[in-house]
Amino acid sequence: MLDKKDEQGSAKLNSRKRRRESSGSNGSAEEVIAKVSRSSFGLREPAPFSDEIEVDYSKPYVRVTMEEAKKGTPGDRPVRVYADGIFDLFHSGHARALMQAKNLFPNTYLIVGVCSDELTHNFKGFTVMNENERYDAVQHCRYVDEVVRNAPWTLTPEFLTEHRIDFVAHDDIPYSSAGSDDVYKHIKEAGMFAPTQRTEGISTSDIITRIVRDYDVYARRNLQRGYTAKELNVSFINEKKYHLQERVDKVKKKVKDVEEKSKEFVQKVEEKSIDLIQKWEEKSREFIGNFLEMFGPEGALKHMLKEGKGRMLQAISPKQSPSNSPTRERSPSPSFRWPFSGKTSPPSSPANLSGKTDLLKSLTPLSLMLANVLRCSKELSEKGLWVCLFSLLKMGLLEICYHCDP
């Protein structure tokens, strides 16, 4: 049965290899590995017990040598390897030891002996799992072909003959017990010992040590999961203490969560504040630039004022009289007076009326310029707008007064 499975596995590997070689038309390095459907290569049922297997005792039992076992035996005559132990709290160290025993020879039949509770308690100590639980755990290991219940503490020739054992697998460290320095000494002397390696860092004693060391943690754990203090052999005071510790731990966890959330909130606020400051700086630069373009030394407002002043001067300047006309002397002071002035002007003559009419006409460009300023200064403050208008009026009216005739 195992040989058929090995043939199927090798056939699948060869088919995948052919697919990799055939992929790539021009010898490129592309390798496309075809996916194989998920399947189970292990046994589908637990290993049987030795007392449930029919043995044909008609065939004589002849042990194979180490050389014959390493070379490989026929399919109908596997090398029968025996490994025994307590296997309490079955863990990966046990499984690795059995895997090594299974792979000692090309064709191996692994028999595993499990000691009973009575022997174990007498020679080694109490176990966490009872014998039935330990039998069941070993039965479900994929490397095991047969399980021997109530295995002997010391292997006798009769036991080896009964189970037709060729080799005994165990780690090479001397195992002192039952008044002997090494219970496997006679097996080693007979040339039937096949050594395996222990897995460091994992053992039943190590697991029990962890539980005993952190007893309070595991007691609280099981109380949370519904076990009673009586089932855990915990006193009333310790039960209340564990419940109080559990509440304190919950409060600490909530405080820690709040601290983490507050840190995240502060970090987000800092990031947003930095973004706002950067935006404010950009907007302030833009506002300052626009302000300088409008009101700077070479801004648009200055050019507008210059153009308006020039137009006003052209409008209110008197036309030059011909060279043959008699010259008129300019009055030393302007004859224009403000409406609120104390002095009264002389009666208006027709000439004076015509001059005032020209003056009113000349004010029209000034009003146009003021309207342009009002239209272009929507972003100015009220104070700045009035200052600008006052300056324009002052400059324009002075020019008008200066150029008017008496």
UniProtKB/TrEMBL annotation:
Superkingdom as given in the UniProt entry: Eukaryota
Pathway in which the depicted protein is active: Lipid metabolism; Phospholipid metabolism; phosphatidylcholine biosynthesis; phosphatidylcholine from phosphocholine: step 1/2
Region (Disordered): 1-31, 316-356
Compositionally biased spans, kind Low complexity: 332-341
MF term (GO), any: choline-phosphate cytidylyltransferase activity
Reaction equations catalysed: phosphocholine + CTP + H(+) = CDP-choline + diphosphate
Gene3D superfamilies (UniProt xref): HUPs (3.40.50.620)
Cytidyltransferase-like domain sequence ranges: 82-210
Keyword Phosphoprotein: no
InterPro entries: CCT, Cyt_trans-like, Pcy1-like, Rossmann-like_a/b/a_fold
Keyword Cell division in record: no
Key words, A-Z: Coiled coil, Lipid biosynthesis, Lipid metabolism, Nucleotidyltransferase, Phospholipid biosynthesis, Phospholipid metabolism, Transferase
Pfam families: CTP_transf_like
Chain coiled-coil ranges: 241-268
EC annotation from Swiss-Prot or TrEMBL: 2.7.7.15
Compositionally biased region (Polar residues): 317-326, 342-355
Function field: Catalyzes the key rate-limiting step in the CDP-choline pathway for phosphatidylcholine biosynthesis.
Family assignment from sequence similarity: Belongs to the cytidylyltransferase family.
NCBIfam families: cyt_tran_rel
Protein name: choline-phosphate cytidylyltransferase
